Amino acid sequence: MLSDVAALAGVSISTVSRVLTGRTPVSAALREKVQAAVAELGYRPNAAAQTLVSGRRSTVAVLARNTLRYGYAATLQGIEEAARAAGYVVSIAVVESEAPRDLDRAVDLVLSQSLAGAIVVEFDSLGVRTLEALPDALPVVAAAGARRRPGPRPHAFLDDQAGGEEATRYLLGLGHRTVHHVAIPSTRPRSGRTWGWRRALESAGVERPEVVQASYDPDSGYAAGLALVDDPSVTAVLCGNDELAIGVMRAFAERGRRVPEDVSVVGFDDQPFARMWSPPLTTVAQDFVDLGRRTLGMLARWVETGERPEDSAAQPTLVVRESAAPPRG
Fold this sequence. Notes:
Elements: H1 2-9, H2 13-21, H3 28-41, H4 47-54, E1 59-64, H5 70-86, E2 89-94, H6 100-111, E3 115-122, H7 125-133, E4 140-144, E5 155-158, H8 160-173, E6 180-183, H9 192-204, E7 212-213, H10 218-228, E8 236-239, H11 242-254, E9 264-269, E10 282-285, H12 288-305, E11 312-314, E12 317-319
Parallel strand pairs: 1-2, 1-3, 3-4, 4-5, 5-11, 6-7, 6-8, 8-9, 9-10
Antiparallel strand pairs: 10-12
Helix pairs in contact: 1-2, 1-3, 5-12, 8-9, 10-11
């Protein structure tokens, strides 16, 4: 603590603050005493303490529905890394459920702090509602997957619609008559990877099967796979994330349909396990860590310049491995 440094150096806390911030000149002798105490104690100034002497707000609140799933966790990693480098402290508030009281509780918690700004991880419908619940006067940037037209809040996007289109075109290019889709929940109609899948099929002029709606976890993918496995016309499946793809492949394997010989499966996100699966999973890679860094960078520029940033988008990349192949015959 600052007081420990002051006690060891035999000076006042205000003197320690002057030495650490460099805002007011001190004598060489005092500087040496304070620096020796800092080195002996291993003291590191924190952003909250610096805020007291500089007047600069240094806390960025991050609101998210989930901090465990891969996309959320990797985005938070990018936010925290960029915040640390820029001198900001990250405060995370988890919105525990869809219940209005849980959203109100999370928003009240972050607004009770002295904030530089906030970030909302807008990967689900609750993220959309969270963004709308924050006051207009607070600088807020959203990290999102589904790209859309510019709105009242700036967004950093992963253009998953483009990823959905590319993956669907790839499967059609292998010779599949159509592509079935196991979908994660969507934040908005006509957006995201499901909309990209639909646009690719319509552009190719091929039959568009009914969407099999799922959640996010492998069990949900397994149930979706069981709903598709007995249909011989299903030869290619695009899954809304890699966890769904695992569940789908498990269901097909249990019923004796091989991947990719009998059915091709493509995932989304390129989670770390995807390349280690058997067969290694073809998937759409999304750089969530970079998304977090871009989002924090946009917010920091807004806070420091007063100028609202423009939206930012990055293109996903199709990673071709071994879980997709031309249809038999």
